Amino acid sequence: MSAAFSKRVDAALADPILKIAVERTAGTAEAKRAIAVDAFAQFEAARTRAAAIKDHVVAHLGYYLEQFETAATSAGAHVHYARTADEACKIVIDICKAAGARTVARSKSMMGEEIGLPHALAEAGIGRVETDLAEHIIQLADERPSHIVWPAMHKTSEQVSALFKQHHALPHSEETIPAMAESARRHLRQGMLGADVGISGANFLVADSGAVCTVTNEGNAELSLVPPRVHIVTAGIEKLVPSMGHAVQLLRLLARSATGATLTQYTTFYTGPKRAADPDGPDAMHIVLIDNGRSAMREDGLAEMLRCIRCGACMNHCVVFRQIGGHAYGGTYPGPMGAVLTPALDGLAASRDLPNACTLNGKCQEVCPVKIPLPTLLRGWREKSWREGLEPATMRQGIAAWAWVAQRPRLYRLAVRAAIFGMRRFGRGWIRTLPLASGWTAHRDLPAPDSESFMNRYARGER
Amino acid sequence: MSARADILGKLGTAAPPPGTAEALLADPVRPAVAGDRVATFLTALALPASGATHERIGSVAEAPAAVARYLAEHALPPAVFVPDDPRLAADWSGFALSLAITPDEPAVIAWARLGIAETGSLVFETGPHAPMLPNFLGLHHIVLLPETAIVAHLEDAALPGPQPRAHYWVTGVSGTTDIEGQYIRGAHGPRFLHVLVVGER
């Protein structure tokens, strides 16, 4: 394990508040999802269909990109392409500068986080108002999101209260969560109405109409995107769907898998800027279509990962995520989907620990609304890390030695007998300390082996 | 090479075999809406996740009286924002009318083109007489919906032909679970949603 990852995990495990905070939100999400899935009898068939829709799009991404570009352009939007995160940020900043923007209102977008847009805006001296309540909290705390649906799930209400009192002009006087939400409502409303540019991501890009679909429960996307003069969308190229009918089938799964609702509160399809006679809406709409490694993922055996609709169910159900929270993963995306994406985005050498920090219990794949074989993809990264020699020498030599012995059955059985004899000298039932095993025994006892091996008993005819 | 040429070159732009995209629309997998669509819609609307209320009225002409009753029940003054929408033409003279939307509008009236029984959603589009911002700024969102405009499924919401700037579905009130997972109504948008189902009396 790399020192940096190990340090982050140790810090997360030692933080008693983090575990409670993560458990509250993820536990609630897990329970609500289960109820929603039970209430939708055809959920399994819907997953199969959703996976087929995404596979169809991913196989024909170029075709749908062109179709989307044509439709969006004829609706009056400007379409841009970006190969990398830096290219995407430059396009966004240039549009903001050309519009003379002093402040932008941002509606929560993981793509914005992926390309480092908050940092790019700060460098360009452009003020940024995060309008999603959770994004607002982490902006005040100067932190990164710890979950793709609940970015501030690691914060307790006491911590949120302190932040609001420090930063809001008219903060809450009562120490309740509704009063805190009200304080944020007052504070953010002016920011949204006064912004020059509104920036959003996209949950879906509808190829046949050129529409960009966003979903929120707070309504902050609409409040951030209607008043400003310019609307900029940053979207991954895998967000395409052929038509609204295809989007609808994915929307049914997205809401149920994320929050347990049948549909998000606000589902909006934006097609081009305001029309001449419209009373409100932006004068210009720009859509930045971002590759940032996605076309390479399709060729490198990660096409199935491009099905992801960012619901967060895999992390809510992950035993590792529930213990360490999102920040310990160190990338933009945490949890199982993050452990697959981060090596593709940031390089395997820097993130090879993530595919290893997984029990392969398969829960993520079971709950994934688009049936991404996450454990298989994680195993793929492990194999690649081995092939490329990224595993440390001690691990490589240890496994090589084990493999050498395991290929010689008589020697292997002899070694097992010796190990049983040796280990039982340290305890019967439970072992409290054992040489070379302090990593385990420092925090818990190790079960002592039985007096003889399975193979011995099998050879005697025990069944 | 431009980013566009580079990306499209890598991906290839060959069209999918004819009919393959359409096949993925056939027999959509969705919850059944059996029986009375209006009753199903009203049930979905009343679920805690949606948290909306409703009243059935006979015609648009009855809307002002219904709105006055609603505002009185919530101890609100008789003041509303009514967009310049011919579909909402009625005698609103009993109200103080906001001419332009203000950031803290207490009550906003709107017309929904459709209701969706499957989810209890209301369908709106922007247009010369249909602003979007008021529907998100108001604290109380009061929506007129013709009873005959309640359709079964989300697929039925699509507007044929050229699209407006925004086509949007509102399902209940603005909500958040961002602080410790606790559900709060009225995060940024409306805290109350009241639907006036307009019949044909």
UniProtKB/TrEMBL annotation, chain A:
- Pfam families registered for this protein in UniProt: Fer4_8, LUD_dom, LutB_C
Transmembrane regions listed in the UniProt entry: none
State the Gene Ontology BP annotations.
lactate metabolic process
LUD domain ranges (all copies): 65-290
Q: Which InterPro entries match?
A: 4Fe4S_Fe-S-bd (IPR017896), FTHF_cligase-like_sf (IPR024185), Helical_ferredxn (IPR009051), LUD_dom (IPR003741), LutB/LldF (IPR004452), LutB_C (IPR024569), NagB/RpiA_transferase-like (IPR037171)
As one GO molecular function, the record gives: 4 iron, 4 sulfur cluster binding
SUPFAM superfamilies named among the record's database cross-references: alpha-helical ferredoxin (SSF46548), NagB/RpiA/CoA transferase-like (SSF100950)
Per UniProt, which keywords does this protein have?
A: 4Fe-4S, Electron transport, Iron, Iron-sulfur, Metal-binding, Repeat, Transport
Domain (4Fe-4S ferredoxin-type): residue spans on this chain = 304-372
Which segments constitute the Lactate utilization protein B C-terminal domain? 399-458
Asked if the keyword Zinc belongs to this entry, the reply reads: no
Report whether Electron transport shows up as a keyword of the record.
Answer: yes
Q: What is this protein called?
A: Lactate utilization protein
Organism (species): Sphingomonas populi
Lineage, uppermost ranks: Bacteria, Pseudomonadati, Pseudomonadota, Alphaproteobacteria, Sphingomonadales
UniProtKB/TrEMBL annotation, chain B:
Query: Which InterPro entries is this protein grouped with?
Result: FTHF_cligase-like_sf, LUD_dom, NagB/RpiA_transferase-like
Record domain LUD: where: 108-198
Query: Superkingdom of the source?
Result: Bacteria
The protein's name: LUD domain-containing protein
